[in-house]
Amino acid sequence: MSVPAQELQRKPSGLFRLRLRTILLLINLVVLVLPLGSIFVLRIYESALIRQTESELIAQGAVIAAAYQTDYARLAGHHEPHAPGDVAALDYGNPLLWHPPQNAGNSPWRPRSAQLDLADDKVRPPVPDPAVADSAADPMAETLGHELTPVLRGAQLYTLAGIRVVDFNGIVVATTSEDLGASLITREEVSRALQGEPVSLLRWRGNETPTFLESVISRGAHVSVFVAQPIVHDGRVLGAVLLVRTPANIKQAILGKRTALLRGALFLLLVVLALSLFTSLTISRPVHALIEQARRAARGERGAVTPLRHAGTREIHELSETIAAMAATLESRAAYIRDFAAHVSHEFKTPLTSMQGAVELLREHDADMSGSERERFLGMVAADASRLERLVRRLLELARADVLQPRREQAAIADIVNAVATRQRELGLEVTVDNQAPGARLAIAPEIIDSILGTLCDNARQHAGAGARVTIRCITDSATRQLLIDFSDNGPGISAANAAKIFEPFFTTARERGGTGLGLSITRSLLAAHGGGIVLLPTQQGAMFRLNLPLVLEPTV
Q1: What are the backbone dihedrals phi and psi of residue 433, each rounded to the nearest 5 degrees, phi first?
Q2: How confident is the model at residue 391, as a pLDDT?
Q3: Could you read off the pLDDT of 331-346 as tens digits, one per residue?
Q4: What is the dihedral of CA 525, 527, 533, 537, to 10 degrees?
Q5: What is the pTM of this model?
Q6: C-alpha–C-alpha distance, residues 287 and 314, integer Å
Q7: Model confidence pLDDT, tens digit, residues 321-377
Q8: For the chain, which domains are there?
Q9: DSSP one-letter string for 47-113
């Protein structure tokens, strides 16, 4: 039981499928969201800003530490070793407990590179308040700090860094703040630096840690970079320089460029809308036009599928042309089947009607008929049955020819032409072979080319009558690598009106002589299956057909 095309169209497939325009819209939205997602990528840039700040603080700390060392060497060299409060130079400061890795070749250079990474390094809690010192600072350190304080505060005007110098006990002796004399020994960076280790770390700013959303957008806006530079002289730690600064962050950059960013976002939105419109015009609209054509064709409308005028893209243009060609082929096949069925019905109806009438007459008037009349009616039944048998046989041959798959066989054309000519001469047909094309071989089974030439000879005998003569001439066309077979007869020829129909199934002018009108149709199908063809050529007398088939190329050594 067949299902109407409309029901098939409405029947749900059971699968959820997005529309093409929805997919394109999603793609454009993803493109729009990508810049927002790039905030995570900018975290890398934020880490670079932190390392830049760390490098600046390291450089400042190294300069201040070198100045402190120089002033200490100057004061220690002119100081009386046994004056009150003095200590021996070898016992001054803390022992150096941390030793840097050795450089290649014992080089004196000790470069210190920035190492902080916002993604990997732990962020310490906010800096604790300074503690009250249990004792006073070292006198010499106080003297050195007093000399450095104006330098530190003058540098802060340009570097914006908070700077403190502590003695070997962790007591502030020079500062850009108001914590002079306070103890910083409890801070991690200070205690490690007083052992001789350079320290860089991150701390949260203020007393509150940022929310999750703030951390996702920009952690750098809520951290400060701390750098502690030990002051080392003759293997002793004299003190440490502590520097702190808040690095630049992405949030500040975004706020500073918010007008430009808003303009860029608006421009990006317009670009996305333009892309959506462009894809709709070049993809969605042509596809919908193809769908509408397919629906019209499914409803039975002929000529509904045609190449689109505005296909949009090359692929849709090629798809439109391919679908139009396919639809034309299907319509041609449907018309062929429809006409073929009508011809078959007509061809079978005539002999069946004749047989049915003869049988009815025999059944009703058999007793009143003479022997000759009875024999005449039986002969009519036998002739019509024979015609039906020929029709069935030729229809089967036509069906096989239409679906024939070429076999890997070869035929020597000269042998086949000679065999056909000999057989037809025995049947009374005069056959002249003008050229046999010796050595030429065709990629076709011998019995097929024999059947084709035999059909042409039978047609010539039917139409030319007594004294029929045919000429077979083989021509090798090396340019096209084909064999041309010209088959001509001396019959009455084919009129211009009939010339356009002779290859159509069931068309014949010799129906009264037993012609079925299928011979040339079968011949054309057999030749087409092997890459060949047949055409009717104009001639002054009789009829001339030209067959063409591809030659078998000899392998080259």
Answers
A1: -100, 110
A2: 65
A3: 877 776 776 666 666 5
A4: -90
A5: 0.47
A6: 13
A7: 888 888 888 887 777 677 666 666 656 676 777 778 778 887 877 777 787 877 877
A8: 21-98+115-256 (3.30.450.20), 268-342 (no CATH), 404-557 (3.30.565.10)
A9: HHHHHHHHHHHHHHHHHHHHHHHHHHHHHHHHS-TTSTT---GGGSSEE----PPPPGGG-S-----
